[in-house]
Amino acid sequence: MDFAHGVWHPGGDGPLPTIVAFHGHGAHGQDLMGLAPFLGGGRTLLLFPEAPYVLQPGTLSYTWFNTGGDPRRSPEEFERIVGLLHDFIDVAVPRYGGDPGRVALLGFSQGGSIAYRLALAEPGRWRGLAALSTWLPEEAEAAGQAADPAAVAALPILVQHGSEDPMIALDRARDSKTRLEALGAKPDHREYAMGHQIGNESLRDLALWSQRVLDVTPEG
Description:
Elements: E1 5-8, E2 16-22, E3 45-49, E4 53-54, E5 62-63, H1 75-95, E6 98-108, H2 110-121, E7 128-132, H3 138-146, H4 149-154, E8 157-162, H5 170-182, E9 188-192, H6 200-214
Parallel strand pairs: 2-3, 2-6, 6-7, 7-8, 8-9
Antiparallel strand pairs: 1-3, 4-5
Helix pairs in contact: 2-3
């Protein structure tokens, strides 16, 4: 599946450092595009795949999984979508001039669960993982258990969560941190006085983190 997607290209010659960003449940492929000028020093290609399933016809409201009316997605559906996104990344990064050897993953809320799974299955492939207002799903934990422990330990993971998040409780993020550490990962876990969002302080930290893991300097 070639997902509908947004692209933010900084201009210049490639291959470019790249961030692939996955939006949350009820959002759309353009939802995180406002982050683009701040991430990777303004010199980074960003790709924003859009979830394939419409929540409400006529609205820009999408979700990643086909649940068939069940409130919970199945493990099989989760793995199916992750596999399709894996293929999307393989094709889209070089298509738009990205550097396949310098890619970081970012996921917000439901999109963060996908980013966790992709990152922990191949920790040596990615420059970093930013997990925003999200949680570690069991499938991602299992992938991390099967991966090279040294690569898991070396993967830069930034976790950001709001202390007042009404959608995904802070305790879920703290539990995810504990489970990540049990895998040998070393997450940089940060909490902010905010809700289910990306605030000014968290964006500043995210911008600095992205520059560091992608080895880029800001424009100007």
